[in-house]
């Protein structure tokens, strides 16, 4: 119902996007509307776990540490 609200539609708060896996989806647009610099959604949120290794390495986890976490089903 919220996606069909006249005010939501008038403000173009719902945008259609082509998702690489799901196909065409509806997504929420930015609530910030600037006349000279319009906003645009540039990418989708990562899949669950997609960046886990990169994040753990940035926190100084070693490959061995990460493997242990995976083996223990912590990540």
Automatic annotation (TrEMBL):
The keyword Transferase applies. InterPro entries: CoA-transferase_III_domain, CoA-Trfase_fam_III, CoA-Trfase_III_dom_1_sf. GO terms for molecular function: CoA-transferase activity. Keywords: Transferase. The keyword Transferase applies. Pfam families: CoA_transf_3. This is Formyl-CoA transferase. The lineage of its organism: unclassified sequences, metagenomes, ecological metagenomes.
């Amino acid at each position: 119902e919220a996606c069909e609200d006249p005010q939501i539609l008038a403000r173009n708060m719902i945008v259609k996007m082509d998702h690489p896996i799901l196909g065409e989806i509806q997504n929420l647009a930015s609530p910030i509307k600037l006349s000279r610099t319009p906003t645009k959604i540039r990418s989708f949120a990562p899949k669950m776990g997609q960046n886990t290794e990169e994040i753990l390495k940035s926190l100084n986890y070693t490959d061995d540490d990460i493997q242990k976490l995976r083996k223990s089903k912590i990540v």
